[in-house]
Amino acid sequence: MKHLFFLPCFIFLFSLPAFGQDSLKLKTNPIIYGDIGFSVPISGIGGVQFNSSLNYQRNKSLFTLRVVAIQSFTVATVKLSPFTVFPYFKDAGHLTEWSVLYGWRTVDDDEAFSVSAGVSYNDREIIYSSNNNRLQLESRYPGLPFEMNVMWFKGRKRKYHIYYLIPVGRPTGFGHSFGFKLSGNVSQHSYVSFGIVFGLGYHKEY
């Protein structure tokens, strides 16, 4: 799970030099941003999905490094009395995915749409019970990840707002974004999911 938070931290540190460039009133900035979000399954692997990515755009081309973690679970029950049972979530394994994607991204004022595909390395663990024994099955395999995103962000330079509330510094292109992501992976354990995503960085040329 710690991999999910590495990319947003990296994008923040990587963007600091460009953040300073705004104060020098340069006309353009690199389009580079990170995001983190969570999704729910549409098909394939069940569970809660967390994702994080680092994105760089040049012209219309979008380059992405993505990390995905899916925690699977089943609902089990424990008998408290002959007439009472208590439900709880039981660990059913997880999936961790590291991927590199290439795609196309278009920007229209304060909105962007992108579609990407690539290759991934996947680590899948399945936990199940048989004859009251807890068994574990692990597999590592390649995959073909894909995603589509729509995101909204500020359309012009404004002061950066901490927690979306507290303005600091001079007007800058560096800021937050919010959007929706449809993503998946075609592989030994395929899945498709849909969720929300929050971004931080330079989302267009200002």
Task: Describe it.
With 206 residues, this protein is mainly beta. The chain has one domain (2-202): Porin (Beta Barrel), CATH 2.40.160. It contains one helix and ten strands. Strands 1-2-3-4-5-6-9-10 form an eight-stranded antiparallel barrel. Strands 7-8 form a two-stranded antiparallel ribbon. Strand 1 and strand 2 form a beta hairpin.
Walk me through the topology.
Elements: H1 2-23, E1 31-44, E2 48-58, E3 61-81, E4 84-108, E5 111-130, E6 133-153, E7 158-162, E8 166-172, E9 175-187, E10 191-202
Antiparallel strand pairs: 1-2, 1-10, 2-3, 3-4, 4-5, 5-6, 6-9, 7-8, 9-10
Query: Structural class of the secondary structure composition?
Result: mainly beta
From the alpha-carbon coordinates, what is the Rg to the nearest angstrom?
Answer: 20 Å
Helix content: 10-25%
CATH class: Mainly Beta
Low-confidence stretches: 14-25
What is the tally of beta strands?
10
Overall tally of structural domains = 1
Oligomer: single chain
**CATH level 3 topology:** Porin
Architecture per CATH nomenclature, i.e. the level-2 architecture: Beta Barrel
> What does the largest sheet look like?
8 strands, antiparallel, barrel
Strand content: over 45%
What integer is the average pLDDT?
A: 87
